[in-house]
Amino acid sequence: MTPLEQVYRQEAARITAALAARIGDVGLAADAVQDAFIEAIEHWRDGQVPPNYGGWLATTARRKAIDRLRRARAGQQKLALLAATMTGEDGNDGDGVDADSADDDLLGMIFACCHPALPRESQIALTLRAVCGLTTGEIAAAFLVAEPAMTQRLLRARKALRAARADLRVPDPDELASRLAEVLAVIYLVFNEGYLASAGRQPARRDLAAQALTLTRLLHRLMPREPEVLGLLALLLLHESRAATRFDGWGRLVRLADQDRARWDRALITEATRLLDRALALRAPGPYQVQAAIAALHAEAPGYEQTDWAQIRLLYDRLQAMTPSPVVLLNRAVATRYVVGPEAALAEIMPLTAELDGYRLFHALRAGLLARLGRDDEAGAARERALALAGNPAERELLARQLSF
After folding, report:
1. Residue 253, φ and ψ in degrees, nearest 5
2. How many Cβ atoms from other residues are within 10 Å of residue 26's Cβ?
3. pLDDT for 145
4. 3-class DSSP state for residue 247?
5. Model confidence over 182-199: pLDDT tens digits?
6. Whose CA is closest to 294, among 280, 278, 313, 275?
7. Rounded Cα–Cα distance for residues 204 and 192 (Å)
8. Does the pTM of the predicted model rise above 0.85?
9. Quick one: pLDDT at residue 331?
């Protein structure tokens, strides 16, 4: 990763959120930050990042936003707001984003992008792009759609948000609940992209996973008795507790069945379990609480095959009733393999072929079940299909390793 790429991952989302909070325009802020990084490429040709790179980028982004507003001969109110922040700054010494308010800006921007004027999928996609800095390709992979279709969805969402004059702040308490489901979905998708990147050279993006955890903790402070916030925070902590064991010394992906459980972070597991107990005591079950309960059963098991698969299978039944999805049924089939057997699990997933034929994990699971049944030629073909669909380098290496056996 180049120094500029590292800076982009560290700073882009926070600068975008801070700028959008000042001018009230997500699209303009994202475009201005992009312009600033293009200028950085020109100024930092030798790879030498200036000491105060955050301040340089924040100042440059504000100036780029002013330039765009002037060229458009519109947005005089936004122009005045920006101009007021420029006094006394120069491109080398300008302050960066205030660390105390940066996360609040990010959270407020997420709520703004989850505006009721937008369809839910557009809310999530726009937030992933504008707030979290995911590429259009990464978002398309998360939604299992083609990249051109996602490009058009993002353009429509930005126009609709601008037309709705969305307020870029955390809503008042009586407005929080109506947008909470979308905000939680965004944060979870960000964490998933950080936990195992959908594409690119890096198998995982720890910056995104850390950002998702920070935002969830902020939400928890904002809504301490909201069961699904507690559930999501518990779920992310349980996944994070296994982070150190997910890749070996060579950078290769390690399956959950093969991870060294002695190295799992027990402090995070304890914190997550406590949060989940608090959520369940509120007696308002939701999908994140169910997923956290599944993850907790994995965390408590002494070994993979000793996991309480029967209970996990029941929990997936409950999750499917709450949020019907072929991916939930696919995960349920993993439990079925241990509760009933591989033949029953294979029978469960075959009806999902039409919906999940473009999903790598469907073919990877099918390959494993076919191999257990001694149908090696079919298993090899399924692994080849999974390998062709995998964008993550670590996943591709794991599948290729299995094909060589």
Report:
1. -70, 135
2. 27
3. 84
4. strand
5. 889 888 988 887 777 665
6. 313
7. 9
8. no
9. 97
CB 213 within 8 A of CB 190: no
| Closest listed residue to residue 68, CA positions, set 36, 31, 41, 40 | 31
Helix (H) or strand (E) holding 136: helix 136-143
Report the SS3 class of residue 241. coil
The radius of gyration of the chain's CA atoms, rounded to the nearest angstrom, is 23
- Residue bearing tokens 């995070």: 268
Tokens 């909470």 belong to residue: 180
pLDDT over 50 at 277, yes or no: yes
Structure token pair of residue 294: 């599944």
253 in helix, strand or coil? Answer: strand
- Non-local (6+) Cβ contacts of 388 within 8 A are none
Q: Measured between alpha carbons, how far is 28 from 223 in angstroms, rounded to an integer? A: 30
Beta bridge partners of 253: 247
Give the per-residue pLDDT at 100: 46
Tell me which residue has tokens 């995104």: 208
DSSP string computed for 289-347? HHHHHHHHHHHH-SSSTTS-HHHHHHHHHHHHHHS--HHHHHHHHHHHHHHT-HHHHHH
Tokens of 46: 């030798």
Percent of the chain at pLDDT exceeding 70: 83
- Cβ neighbours of residue 45 closer than 8 Å, sequence gap 6 or more: none
Instruction: Report which residue type is found at 376.
Output: D
pLDDT for 89: 45
Neighbour-count burial of 183, counting CB atoms closer than 10 A to its CB (0-12 exposed, 13-18 middle, 19+ buried): buried
User: Could you report the per-residue pLDDT of 15-73, keeping only the tens digit for each?
Assistant: 887 777 777 677 777 788 888 888 887 777 666 677 777 788 888 888 887 777 776 65
Other beta carbons less than 10 A from residue 233's beta carbon: 24
Mean pLDDT of 251-265: 92
Tokens standing for residue 197: 């990147």
Distance, CA of 96 to CA of 379 (rounded, Å): 53
Provide the phi-psi class of 374: left if phi over 0, else alpha when psi is between -120 and 50, else beta.
Answer: left
C-alpha span between 134 and 130 (Å, rounded): 8
Q: How far is CA 7 from CA 13, 47, 55, 139, 400, in A?
A: 11, 11, 12, 21, 33
Kindly report the average pLDDT of the chain as a whole number: 83
Tell me how far apart the alpha carbons of residues 19 and 13 are, in angstroms, rounded to a whole number.
10
Structure tokens at 83: 């101009």
